[in-house]
Write the structure tokens for this entry.
Amino acid sequence: MFYTLEILGTIAFAFSGSLAAFNKKMDVFGVFVVAFVTAMGGGMLRDILIGNTPVVWMKDLTYIFVIGTGTITALIFRKKLMYLRRSLFLFDSIGLGIFTIIGIEKGIEAELHPIVCITLGTLTACFGGVVRDILCNDIPVIFRKEIYATVCVLGGIVFFLLKEINLTDNLIYLVTSLLIIIIRLIVVIKKWRLPRVT
Amino acid sequence: MFYTLEILGTIAFAFSGSLAAFNKKMDVFGVFVVAFVTAMGGGMLRDILIGNTPVVWMKDLTYIFVIGTGTITALIFRKKLMYLRRSLFLFDSIGLGIFTIIGIEKGIEAELHPIVCITLGTLTACFGGVVRDILCNDIPVIFRKEIYATVCVLGGIVFFLLKEINLTDNLIYLVTSLLIIIIRLIVVIKKWRLPRVT
Amino acid sequence: MFYTLEILGTIAFAFSGSLAAFNKKMDVFGVFVVAFVTAMGGGMLRDILIGNTPVVWMKDLTYIFVIGTGTITALIFRKKLMYLRRSLFLFDSIGLGIFTIIGIEKGIEAELHPIVCITLGTLTACFGGVVRDILCNDIPVIFRKEIYATVCVLGGIVFFLLKEINLTDNLIYLVTSLLIIIIRLIVVIKKWRLPRVT
């Protein structure tokens, strides 16, 4: 189930990256690069910080193939997907929920402190999107005025609370990722914001 | 004493990052992220380049707590700190002096050549500030027309000269870091510049 | 021969970086930093992703000396080199050809899959130039409308095809790097482009 989740999150972020690149009218190579970096950027940074190298997509070709297939699918159906351009944030939210959990699990594997694990989860989930926005020359979504990374931190805290009460891993994954996705969607729709420093 | 210095430098850079984020009217999460990256960015890059992973803040929670406390303190006293906004460069200079020495010491630990150690020291001291300025959408202070990184290189050379004449480590740390801080302050006040290529 | 190639590529990229920095009228320290990052950026990212740390220039001072000498040479002859400013892409192309091969070889050494090796080659060749352009505040050449990284991917495919028919390594290096350099030059002169997504 864990691996399936990882592939799902990768597809969601590859779509989110492709859509962002379509909006900028990039060439086909550019679209693939943005899709790849959006999907793999967070995981790469996490693996580098932990020292878990070579990074994951070098050891398992599945990621490259999934992103390649995802990008080509997005290219073929781009006319239909363009109606979804405002739904970019939907794919982004799904990736956000799944990748937070993957980052936390990698932290636990490396026997790091829960606080560090939650940081790693947030980083895994958010960094790909930051690089996507920089490559597309947009202001990173994370620095815009909505709540973004905070949702991952919240999800991470729930993750460890559920672990305390001994839920099964699969149930924890499900509850936490759905929670992150739903809160993130509500945040975007309701335009919730964190207090600004004045 | 070495560890104390490191914590002091971390606080100085966390303050410098918080102040920069206040100036940009970021939300509370943004302030913490900028403070964290300013304080830890240089050390992270250094540890990654040396292969000294997991990076330091993952193995010792003190850093996260110090930066968290520093950011909250800065938030509470922000009205008073805002008078100091032009003194951003003071905290920056203190961090610069201390982090140069820490970078050099980590290079020596890894048995690298003095030239590489000086490069590591300069990188440790300067990279956090570069990322802070990028996140705040300012032109990095390092690329502005003042002398910045050159002060660290100079301090690094003095460090190894003092080591040659067998001064005690603590004395070398003190002399070198004070030297860097003072030269940096003079540079800012006197507006010294490196020759430009014409 | 392999090591000689690496030094040649380093000089080509150091020149390309210096010229870009001259055009921006940076100070002498800035010129060295841009030259260094252009020449070493791709290799550093590759070594970090593979986990081949400390990165190469820390273990062998030759690189720092070559880049230092190259930058000083470029500084002294800058009036003459400035006539070549439009030839920036010539040095860039030579570096591109050589660094692709070096990246591929490092991937083979680490026993990675050919697809991953080609990715590493492309990354080694292209990343330094991307950072150079970001530091000089230009739109990265790789994201402009010409074919850039695609040439490296093509060269990488030819590399493994030639390996299949058992050519000697030196011959493969020569043919592949010349191929990349020539195609790249044709691309720039003929203004070839990849199809854009519409």
In short: The longest helix of chain A spans residues 28-50. Chain A has a mean pLDDT of 85. Residues 107 and 117 of chain A are 5 Å apart (CA to CA). Chain A touches chain C at residues 21-22, 25-31, 33, 44, 48, 51, 53-55, 57-58, 61, 64, 75, 78, 135 (CB under 8 Å).
